[in-house]
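Feature request, filed as a ticket because there's no other form

It would be nice if the structure record came with a short human-readable summary line next to the C-alpha cells. Right now we just get the raw output. Example of a typical job, pasted below so the devs can see what we mean:
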Amino acid sequence: MAHEVLGDATRAGEWRAVRLRVDGERIVGSDAEGLDRPLAGLTLLEAATVGGEPLAVDALASALGQVVRASPASGRVAVAMSGGVDSAVALVRAGPRAVGVTLRLWQDPHGPSAERACCSTEAVAAARATCHDLGLPHVTLDLREGFREAVVEPFAAGYAAGDTPNPCARCNGAFRFDALLAFAERVGAEELWTGHYARVVEREGRLLVGRGADPDKDQSYMLSLLDPAQLRRIRFPLGGQSKAETRAEAAGAGLAAAGRAESQEACFLAGGDYRRFLERRGLSRAEGRIVDLEGKELGTHRGFWRFTPGQRRGLGIGVGRPLYVVGTDAAANAVVVGPREALAARRVEAEGRLYAPAERVSAKLRHRSAPVAARVSAANGGFVLELAEPAHAVAQGQVAALYDGDAVVGAGVIRRVA
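Raw output as currently delivered:
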C-alpha cells in the first residue's frame, strides 16, 4: 500500500518541500519542483541519484532518508561518506553498485568553522556531489538528536564528573557504526566500507580491528571500542596505504575531494574550544582552589573541568618549579597539582572487554600517547592493567586500547588510575 512522506529543507531563509508517494521500494507519485527529472516510477535508490537545484535536492534527501530501502543485491556496498578524500576514494573502489551514505549529526551552532566538520551541511553536499558525479545514489540520514543524546550529552556529563572523555571513540565504537550497519541492511548492501585508516585482521578465528599501515594516520585507536562481531560486514579499503597515496589516487581519478582539507576531530565542536562549549552547556565557572598534594592552596581557578591530568600550562600559579595537574575533585571543585613524578601510573582499571585471550599487551592510554607494555587480567565488567613502566597523564574517561602486535585485542574506558 502506498504511503506519503514529506521532506523539507531551508537555505539562506528559503524553504522547499518534497512530497513522495511510495509503494514498497518505488516512488509512484511526487510533488517536487527544481529537480532534474521526474521521480514517479523510480526506485528509492534511483531517486537518490537525482540532482537539481540545491535546495530541492536537500528536500528530496530529507524525504528519502526516512524511507529508503532496497532488496538485497549481489555486489551492492554501502559507503560511509564524509565529504573528504578518504571516503571518496573508498567509494570509487566500491564499484558501480555502491551507495553513499552521510550521517548528519548535531554540531554546536556557535562553532567558528562548522563547514569543516564531517557532519556539516557543507560536508553532506560535498559527499552527495561526489556520488552524483559518478552516477551513484547518495542518502543522508538525519541523526542529529540521537547523536546529541548518545555522544554530546555524555561528553558534557563526563567533564562535569571530573573525567576527560573521548567522544570520537564513543561515536565510532557504537553510535556511528550501529547506524551505518543498519542502513546497509535497509538498502540490501552486502558490506559497509569506510575511509578509516585501519584494517580487519584475523586472530585464531576472530576478526579484530588492526592498525593501519600508515602510522601517522592509523585510526585503530578510535575504532577500538567497535564490537568485533560487526567486523564481518565492515571493510576498511584504505588501511594498507598512506594518506599521500590516497590523495594521489583521488587526483588520478579526477575527484574534487583530492585537495579537500582534513575534517576536524570532535566534529560537534565545529572548530570551537571545548571549554567555551562546556560553559554554554552550563558547567559552572565557580571559583575553586588549586592545591598541592598536601592540600596547600597555591591559587584559584574558574572551573575544575577546564583542567586535565598532565596539563602544565594555564595554571596561573608560580612556585619556582614545574607543576602539573595530577587530578581534579568535582565534589570539592578543586584542582590538584604536583611534580611530574606524581603523574606516574602503574595500574589502570577500565570498563570494557577483552576481545581475544591476552596476558601481555601494548596499551595505548590516550590518542596521542605512546603505547606501554602491560600485563592484563579480566575483571568484573572490564580489565586491569599492570604497566611495565610508569605512564604519565593517564586520565579517567579516556580509552585504553590493547594491542597484540597490530591487532586490537581489547578496549575500555579508564575508570581508575593508581
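Something like this underneath would help us a lot:
Helices lie at 44-47, 54-67, 85-94, 121-133, 144-160, 167-186, 243-252, 274-280.
The two ends are 62 Å apart (CA to CA).
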